[in-house]
């Protein structure tokens, strides 16, 4: 199947630290590509340099539908349909849930206020955020709902490719189930998902393929069952986690 998003030789260093080293991957439409690796292995940096939020790669190419996008600016990449969430639920705490998502919609879409507001409300609904709480101040919401506001802010961009950075962290098992259902729903609508996750049962359940980073390098990729049984992965990731 043709790749929707592809990375070739992506690399990023911080001074002498090589955070992401010569990473190649591709993901097809409707596929969930899981990304695992120990703390500090470069997973979030990979999302940063794919979206340019907040910084670009030092080297390498990112292709969307075969078209290089690495020279575009962050908002242009978002408008083309590559959206991300963050490890920490980054919301504006003094704004309501819907105003948070509206800001994202206004930043990335060219519609008028009414169209952007409708897009924001739709995105909250798609994320499964309760309709009765749209006007609640985000800072007063529990962590799960703040995460849904952040996910909805990405969905308001109507992305084709959604990059989720540890959506399950700090959540209860029941809430993690809801994240799992949400990912299945988004994939059912044709979305392509890159998922960074330390909660391995979620990662292996929803991912079509997994890739594992260690010290910024891709050490394994393939079907989840094969990858988590790979001795190099057990040594680098599971071994150290234990
Ligand atoms: N802005 C930055 N400046 C300097 N070093 C950074 C910066 N961002 C990340 N790093 C370093 O790059 C390496 C990779 O970090 P990154 O956050 O990408 O790892 P990660 O796999 O997402 O980790 P975690 O699972 O803990 O979130 C780490 O050593 C980190 O300290």
TrEMBL record:
PROSITE patterns: ABC_TRANSPORTER_2
Listed InterPro entries: AAA+_ATPase, ABC_AA/LPS_Transport, ABC_transporter-like_ATP-bd, BCA_ABC_TP_C, P-loop_NTPase
Keywords: ATP-binding, Nucleotide-binding, Transport
SUPFAM superfamilies: P-loop containing nucleoside triphosphate hydrolases (SSF52540)
Molecular function via GO: ATP binding; ATP hydrolysis activity
Pfam families: ABC_tran, BCA_ABC_TP_C
GO CC, alphabetical: plasma membrane
Domain ABC transporter: residue ranges: 5-240
Protein name, per record: Branched-chain amino acid transport system ATP-binding protein
